[in-house]
Design goal:
The protein is built from 6 helices and no strands. The protein is mostly helical. Helix 2 packs antiparallel against helix 3 and helix 3 runs antiparallel to helix 4. Pfam families: CLAMP (PF14769).
Amino acid sequence: KMAEFLNLTQLKTSLKETILFDYYTAGFWWAKEMNFSLIQISGFMSLLNFALENLSSKRMTLGDNVKELERAVTGIRETESEEGGDLNLFSIDQGKAIVDFLFSSLFQHYKAYEYLFHVRREESVLSNE
């Protein structure tokens, strides 16, 4: 279901898709283990996507991405969403746990993710022959 939701159609042959699938799946199960509500899981997954998009699309450095994450997390406590709902989704302890998760997953391996998104690789042809 996760692969379908993320529109990952080449999990068996694409290293990039497999890594993205692992990243989001690990985040989802971590949030479930933290007993987040469905709304909190959705907010957490949005933060995972936000940090990854900063790296992949905006090509932010690690330092800039951490600053943007800090703004996003503190913004959650200060603003309301575009739909008008309250974004005060997480307690202080949950927020700290989220930051710890991001540091132990995406940020700890930032160079590897930069390589994944920004270094051109030759495509390997896989076959049964």
